[in-house]
Task: inverse folding
RNA sequence: GGUGCAGGCCGGUUUGUCGCUGCUCCCUGCUUUGUCGGGGAGAAGAGGAAAGUCCGGGCAACGCAGAGCGCCAUACUUCCUAACGGGAAGGUGCCUGCUUAGGAAUAGGCAGGCAACAGACAGUGCCACAGAAAAUAUACCGUCCUCGAGCCGGAAAUCGGUACUUGGAUAAGGGUGAAAUGGUGGAGUAAGAGCCCACCGGGUGAGGGGUGACCGUCACCGCAUGGCAAACCUUAUGGGUUGAAAGACCAAAUAGGCUCCGGUCCAAGGGCUGCUCGUCCAAUCCCGGUCAACGGGAAACCGGAGUGGGUAGGUCGUUUGAUCUUUUCUGUGAAGAAAAGGCUAGAUAAAUGACAAACACUUUGAAAAAAGUACAGAACCCGGCUUACAGGCCUGCACAUUUU
RNA sequence: GGUCCGUUCGUCUAGGGGUUAGGACGCAUCCCUUUCACGGAUGAAACACGGGUUCGAUUCCCGUACGGACUA
């Protein structure tokens, strides 16, 4: 039985960690997302941050719409990271498109992203 | 029953699987018995506008002798309200439609809509172009009478006409403008004029009705004095400032602050001089001690302990409130009062979701079916306003049509 | 969440009630030149939108839309 939860502890909300992630993290683009990640081997879980810019989507309803679908897709597919044995990471997903995308489009993109995240940028961290 | 307008109300439903948030209950774990961790169950979980942030208030911190100036806001009246720039009822003016009287202008009635609707003899300012003139009682043109001297007509006259001129009377006319100094008609005159008269308009006063805005009535006055205060302004009324990122509390690591305890300092060196002596400075200073040793105190540094502020982070503020629902009563109404019952989101980079199916509604279509289901997401909380909105329901008015 | 400001030719801007809305760069056409550039002449081109006040609004007032700044 895979763990399909997405509880509070799996969200990234600490200001300090966010700052660190954006300062030191590695990144790549996979439309419609920019992905930033950073190893955090001492943590119990991966932690995720979803961001949708106010400049791209003006209305709060649309921003909620995207965030909810991204979180849902992560929740249902995060077992990919566990199976691959990727060390614990901080992950930021930044939505850069100006258009609304349905769940049908977002889910495959997110799966690709989860497969693309490298296992360890620096093995000596272990 | 249909269409349009106005007002009010509602704003998709059900099931399955997987999740999120806080609450209650149960089970359980422990280096930490906790406002702790894990698991399970239950019931709950976005709006009419949650939006714009245009007003008003609660709440909080800071400030505050009293008064004035300045700044900002508001502006017919009365009322509602915690308060308001909001709302209710009413007044006045304007507009639209219908209707009555009338030949018409116009007047009255009904219905609806709109109004930043205090003040323009407190002051300052502006009024382009056009026009004689744009705010000042008056110039110019013009009209009329008259003095004079011409010219023309005429046989002539104290005749007639004509342009000029002296002295007066006027404000009718000047057609331009957004706006022109009461309007229309008559009488009157040399020509004219509220100079006089009728009606309309305006002003003043008295008395009456109304809480009041204001409305009738009567009398008098022939009555020059524009518009713009969403120009400055005047008057009246109100406003202390800043906003939950307010504010209160708990508080790690690191660095630094303060307090206490312990320890460390023993003449190396430099200047004056050619050199020595001497002398001065000096590795901190002060006191006791002739000096030195030594002792005490302070400072500095090192180590340790404690402590206040305070950062990350957390808790409160924070959801029981000018609260909601129902009924009754008061009031034209906004609204108020009483009784009974209810607890109805509390997140914190931010939950209220995702997927699937069925139903409902709308449009297209003969049907099958297809497409669509708005505007939009709480962020301390309320009262309003404004703006957006698929579709549906109710009430009133108007219109045409159908049936009886 | 709160506070404040702006919107004028394609771009940067002036004008803050009065009738042709000005300038610079750019653009188009013509002249100059063997040609291009420079220079000269001419022209096209704008008051965000909807109401209101006023005789008259780009200007004043209200609302809407869009854009921007500040604030931990």
Result:
């Amino acid at each position: 039985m895979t763990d399909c939860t997405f509880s509070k502890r799996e969200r990234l909300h600490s200001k300090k960690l966010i700052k660190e992630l954006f300062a030191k993290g590695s990144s790549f683009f996979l439309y419609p997302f920019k992905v930033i990640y950073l190893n955090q081997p001492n943590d119990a879980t991966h932690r995720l941050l979803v961001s949708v810019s106010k400049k791209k989507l003006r209305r709060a309803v649309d921003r909620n719409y995207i965030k909810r679908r991204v979180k849902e897709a992560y929740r249902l597919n995060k077992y990919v990271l566990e199976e691959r044995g990727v060390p614990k990471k901080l992950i930021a997903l930044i939505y850069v498109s100006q258009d609304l995308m349905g769940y049908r489009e977002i889910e495959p993109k997110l799966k690709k992203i989860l497969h693309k995240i490298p296992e360890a940028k620096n093995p000596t961290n272990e």
The helical segments of chain A are 15-24, 60-77, 79-84, 103-116. Chain A has one domain: 8-116.
